[in-house]
Amino acid sequence: MQIKWDIDRKRGNYRPTLKFVITLEEHERSIAMHAVSVQSMIPRIPNGGRAWCMPGCDERAPGWIPADYHQLHVPYFKTGIIKDFIRLPFQADDTFPEVENSFLLLRDTYEKVVASVYSIEPVNQQKELTTSQKTKEKIAAALTAQKMLAFSF
Asked: Which pLDDT tens digits describe the chain residue by residue (153 residues)?
């Protein structure tokens, strides 16, 4: 699995935007992995549809504490890719440790599941049964007689 992300913020009262792409590698797609998701450490912000946040409002209000956090998901194995974005809470500095820590959590959780699923070995069994010797002995006389009577001169 590959996770790429970038964080952009315009000058002023704009919120930073996290854009990310999560891509499964072919060997991960080939084992039909089930969905894996984790609760991230990235807070959900009030009015997250707005690209800006004015001083004293939403996450910039005094004493604001996040009530909820974003879920991060590994792509569905058939599509193999997720492209998404999350608006991050406004902050004056340019450090976003919750982003990398959340992606690390997703990767670590996913890798445990991959190791577990990958340990299930493939199977290819081909077997065959025929009439048992015991049954053949029981019906041999009757079959032989039937064939001899069916024989025509």
From this structure: 999 999 999 999 999 999 999 999 999 999 998 889 999 999 999 999 999 999 999 999 999 999 999 999 999 999 999 999 999 999 878 899 999 999 999 999 999 999 999 889 889 999 999 999 988 888 888 888 777 777 655
pTM of the model: 0.80
Q: In terms of C-beta density within 10 A (0-12 exposed, 13-18 middle, 19 or more buried), how is residue 7 classed?
A: middle
The tally of domains found in the chain comes to 1
Residue 146, in any domain of the structure: no
**Domain carrying residue 22:** 2-118
